[in-house]
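Here is this case:
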Amino acid sequence: MIDHVLKNRIDTAYRLADTAGRALPDFNAQNNMSLRDMLKYNFLQYIGFLFETDGTDGRSELEFIKDYIGMTMDISQFMNFKYGKCMDKDFINTPPKALFYLAKYDMSVGIVKAQDGKNLSKTVVDLFKDLGTAFVAVNGETITEVANLSNYSLMLDNFLKEYGLYFGNPGSVANNKTGNTGAGATKEEVSATKAAVNSSTESDHQEETLDQLMEELNSLVGLKSVKQDLTNLINLVKVRKLREERGMKQPDITLHLVFSGNPGTGKTTVARLLAKIYKALGVVSQGQLVEVDRSKLVAGYVGQTAAMTAEVVKSALGGILFIDEAYTLIKVGDEKDFGQEAVDTLLKLMEDNRDDLIVIVAGYTDKMEEFVNSNPGLKSRFNKYIFFSDYTGKELTDIFKSMCKKQEYVPDKEALEYVKEYLNKRAKAHEENFANAREVRNYIERCIERQASRIVDIDDISDEELRTLRIEDVTE
């Protein structure tokens, strides 16, 4: 079943690409195809990159290519294309050649905007994502295909961010000369274009879109594997919904999660974002995060625990229930403890409200594994683990600078060098009670207290002095 909205968007992109190609003076001199054909070629490469053989004759995949991209071929031609010289060995890290020219057009000539107001480059990147999602849905998604889709989407987003095209208007770019007629922009072209980009200002958005929420997730310091795992999961959700809309069978996927890792590694922050993302995707109806621990679920008297747990679950309906240190719910060997009653009640309510409730259990890695494995019901519902590793010294320093910026403090050069060395030592020490980002937050509070004591008696103090953290303020 063809999605005519997507097909119309692709046709519109082809027409806009023609406009952009004609407006770039050097395009025709450097390429032996139109920008429309180059974009079409890049779409085909992308489908070839995503495709994983599933034992079928490939008929549905070829129909997809014909319907959406507008190219007709047989399976042997497609397989030769997929495994031939046309596929760059570093395809996953190589921006499409057409996108390079579209970005150049946006930055040097002017913006052709689609009906939704996006610049042409962002419009085409969104098309790559939606085209890939539709193809994976038709092809019967595999983990490899979803991972390929996620990785390529992240690369495209990073491309737009580097040129100031992700949200708002681009900067300007010189008329760079480029002789590469292949599928991807060369490193030299990318470097030349980036060097010519002026500063750009992001648009103010009052409503958080899925794009903005994903950008917020991806802009968090560190957490590389967490971002990748969640991007894969989100793409699975998108593919699943698309298959549902088209009357296809949907794969069973677990949306309940185990967040494991040490304190202060971003688990609550990510859970709060994920609740909003799930709402944007239509997985839950409200998108709130309800954060609890054992004390909010377990009572000290018979009959109270089930009622407490039910009340908490009720408040989380339509969003995510986040249970921190969930392993404390079960105390092995203590028959008088009511934690098991909370677990049993939770499992029942999760089943009763499976269409509008997501539960995330969190805590130390080893203890979370013991907790999940302690109960067959838990093990069947929580089989997706997201591991949050400790921050490196550099990441802690980035967190420090980010927190300072939000509070309008600026460490001077000497102070910042001390902070880098101090946090790097703390990160490498791996002390048992080290709390990662929470430790940084507490450290900044101490720095601010010392700064206040230092400047409180200064008469006619300047704004700069009020903002500046000096070496004596940051020294522990």
